[in-house]
């Protein structure tokens, strides 16, 4: 019987080969990037096709690829950075001594991979610009090292200038990032409308908030909307909690709260469209509210429940931010450039320093990439033809941080690149060897690659290989033999990457227990803060609470990403498997949902009275979370605690309080404390046999 991980890997490879997502295409940006290539090629032609022409065109090409990578900004800074990094690659890749070159390749691969782990932009920049290291021998054959490096940087500068051309959508990337956060909240509201205990799935919300926090300059409306994300999430949680409490009481009430959550999802989706679309649809608040007021519960009472009223007020505030962005003219809030750069650098250095230990997966990936590139460079230098550079180039692009990604990317790139080089080589036989024709073919390949970059990795790989063949390597007396040789080099490079990962893996399955334990610790911090707020409202610190929420989202994102990767790995325990970890996370998520409802009973600036008995219950929950963290990591768990008895004591203490002002808080706390205990007991049962 086939291993489930192997079966899943085959499924992902097939899905990736067949993937075609035209909705992700950005034709305006692709044409603009292709125009940058045309400008660079025209400048080279005007100068009489000098020796530095190939380096200049390649610099412009890489700047365009970086801008077309999903999740990157479309401003001029990224092409400039890619051009500069590519120039460094040209210099290092021109080392003459083979032994020193192989050592430099390994060091280059390790350094770029390690530093590129800081942010997505850094990873894209270094991966794209790293290609120039392997092409350096061709680019400097006639131009010289220094001249080729300067030309590469100049090509990136040309692409940076084209990034400023119209149509220019102001703050487009920041709007898209904020829209992603609103869409994540909309998806959460939709899920809660159907099931108030739906597990948290707000990783896009965390990623969007983190991305906005890294910006130096932002419109005031974006900055304020970023801060208001917590309020929207809390308001949605309050309505979902009210829906859960009414679940067994009144069907009309349940439908009323569900309709309010569905309305919230529609509104948030509309706001996201409003700030990203050039022609958004009009919004009729009156029609939306009229539809909500037709519910039998609203008709009978003539009022809106406080939870729904609070949600609508929060959403109205969100709509105001969207209107300010679309109207334009909003003030731009910017940190001082030097202070921002220094702060970003300190944060990056801190992240890298924290990863400098042998168990960190980033170190594993950097070392693995260095080893693969050193081996591929050795084989490439010993390859009997002039196409050996395709081997380390393919290995550089194929090797990913996880097994499934490496296998999928390896097969897709191998198939696409092999087909691309064979087709390009055969096409070179048919085309006249005229500079105008060759330039038009290069430009056509560039445009196809830019158009398909976010659409299909298979077609993109084929287009990139064709571009490289016509731009760098259209030579040889026998085009068919050259095509077969390039294809063989591509297959060797892909096989090296996949085989090396298998021999020196970082199996995500082995990390799931530790990642789940880290998530339990984050949930424990949030539980303590939520209950402390009920016991001691005057001590509440909003910033500390928001930091705890962000920590949960970050660790849940890390766990779900690792679990998705582990699903396609051909290995088993010890410890939890992918489905086990996600099942335990779902139980922990139910407990967190209940705590969100408890936390939402107090407003942002509300002055309230502390509740007796909550501290003791918080201590019991703390002990339970510590035990769960130990079970997840496979450590010896501390002595357990009877949560059922703890919740009974809390219920008794709360029932003895005779205070009308705290009646709602006490009612919610008594309801949700049972849900917390039930969820944590389920999590404990799931984890009990993992390390037996």
TrEMBL record:
- Domain called Integral membrane bound transporter: residue spans: 375-498
Read off the InterPro entries from this record. Answer: Memb_transporter_dom
**Pfam families in the record:** FUSC_2
Q: How does it sit in the membrane?
A: Multi-pass membrane protein
Q: Which residues are listed as membrane-spanning?
A: 25-48, 78-95, 107-133, 145-166, 366-383, 414-430, 436-452, 480-503
Q: Is Cell membrane a UniProt keyword of this protein?
A: yes
- Please give the superkingdom of this protein's source: Bacteria
Q: What is its main location?
A: membrane
Keyword line: Cell membrane, Membrane, Transmembrane, Transmembrane helix
Q: Where in the cell is it found?
A: Cell membrane
The entry sums up its family as follows: Belongs to the YccS/YhfK family.
- Name used for this protein in its record: FUSC family protein
Source organism: Glycomyces tritici
- Organism placement in taxonomy: Bacteria, Bacillati, Actinomycetota, Actinomycetes, Glycomycetales
């Amino acid at each position: 019987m086939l291993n489930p991980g192997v079966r899943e890997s085959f499924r992902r490879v097939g899905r990736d080969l067949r993937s075609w997502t035209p909705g992700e295409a950005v034709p305006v940006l692709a044409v603009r990037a292709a125009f940058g290539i045309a400008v660079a090629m025209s400048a080279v032609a005007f100068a009489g096709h000098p020796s530095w022409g190939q380096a200049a065109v390649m610099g412009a090409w890489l700047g365009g690829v970086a801008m077309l990578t999903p999740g990157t900004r479309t401003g001029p800074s990224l092409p400039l950075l890619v051009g500069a990094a590519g120039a460094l690659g040209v210099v290092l890749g021109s080392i003459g001594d083979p032994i020193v070159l192989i050592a430099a390749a390994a060091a280059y691969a390790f350094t770029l991979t390690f530093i590129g782990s800081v942010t997505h932009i850094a990873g894209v920049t270094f991966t794209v610009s790293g290609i120039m290291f392997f092409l350096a021998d061709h680019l400097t054959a006639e131009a010289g090292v220094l001249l080729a490096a300067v030309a590469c940087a100049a090509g990136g500068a040309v692409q940076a200038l084209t990034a400023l051309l119209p149509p220019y959508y102001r703050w487009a990337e920041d709007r898209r990032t904020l829209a992603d956060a609103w869409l994540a909240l909309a998806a959460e509201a939709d899920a809660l409308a159907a099931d108030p205990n739906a597990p948290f799935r707000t990783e896009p919300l965390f990623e969007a908030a983190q991305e906005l926090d890294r910006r130096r300059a932002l419109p005031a409306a974006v900055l304020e909307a970023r801060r208001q994300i917590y309020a929207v999430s809390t308001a949605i949680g309050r309505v979902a909690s009210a829906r859960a409490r009414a679940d067994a009481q009144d069907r009309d009430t349940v439908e009323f709260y569900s309709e309010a959550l569905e309305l919230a999802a529609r509104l948030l989706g509309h706001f996201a469209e409003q700030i990203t679309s050039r022609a958004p649809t009009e919004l009729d608040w009156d029609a939306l509210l009229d539809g909500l007021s037709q519910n039998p519960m609203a008709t009978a009472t003539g009022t809106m429940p406080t939870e729904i009223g609070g949600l609508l007020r929060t959403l109205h505030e969100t709509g105001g931010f969207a209107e300010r962005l679309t109207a334009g003219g909003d003030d731009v809030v910017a940190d001082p450039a030097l202070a921002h750069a220094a702060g970003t650098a300190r944060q990056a250095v801190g992240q890298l320093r924290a990863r400098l230990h042998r168990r960190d997966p980033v170190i594993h990936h950097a070392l693995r990439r260095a080893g693969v590139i050193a081996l591929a460079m050795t084989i490439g230098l010993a390859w009997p033809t002039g196409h050996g550079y395709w081997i380390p180039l393919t290995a550089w692009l194929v090797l990913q941080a996880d097994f499934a990604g490496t296998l999928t990317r390896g097969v897709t790139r191998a198939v696409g690149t092999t087909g691309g080089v064979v087709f390009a080589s055969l096409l070179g036989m048919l085309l006249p060897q005229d500079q105008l024709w060759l330039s038009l073919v290069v430009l056509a390949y560039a445009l196809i690659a830019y158009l398909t970059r976010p659409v299909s990795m298979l077609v993109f790989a084929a287009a990139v290989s064709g571009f490289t063949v016509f731009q760098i390597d259209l030579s040889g007396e026998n085009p068919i033999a050259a095509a077969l040789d390039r294809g063989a080099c591509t297959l060797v490079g892909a096989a090296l990457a996949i085989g090396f990962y298998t021999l020196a893996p970082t199996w995500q399955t082995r990390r799931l227990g530790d990642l789940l334990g880290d998530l339990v610790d984050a949930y424990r911090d949030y539980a303590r803060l939520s209950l402390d707020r009920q016991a001691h409202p005057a001590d509440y610190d909003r910033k500390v609470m928001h930091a705890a929420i962000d920590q949960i989202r970050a660790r849940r994102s890390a766990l779900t990403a690792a679990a998705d990767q582990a699903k396609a790995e051909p290995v088993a325990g010890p410890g939890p498997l992918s489905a086990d970890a996600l099942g335990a996370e779902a139980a922990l998520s139910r407990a967190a949902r209940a705590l969100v409802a408890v936390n939402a009973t107090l407003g942002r600036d509300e002055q309230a009275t502390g509740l007796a008995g909550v501290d003791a219950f918080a201590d019991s929950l703390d002990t339970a979370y510590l035990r769960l963290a130990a079970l997840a990591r496979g450590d010896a768990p501390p002595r357990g605690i009877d949560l059922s008895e703890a919740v009974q004591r809390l219920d008794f203490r709360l029932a003895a309080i005779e205070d009308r002002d705290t009646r709602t808080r006490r009612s919610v706390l008594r309801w949700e404390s049972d849900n917390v205990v039930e969820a944590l007991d389920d999590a404990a049962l799931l984890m009990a046999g993992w390390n037996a």
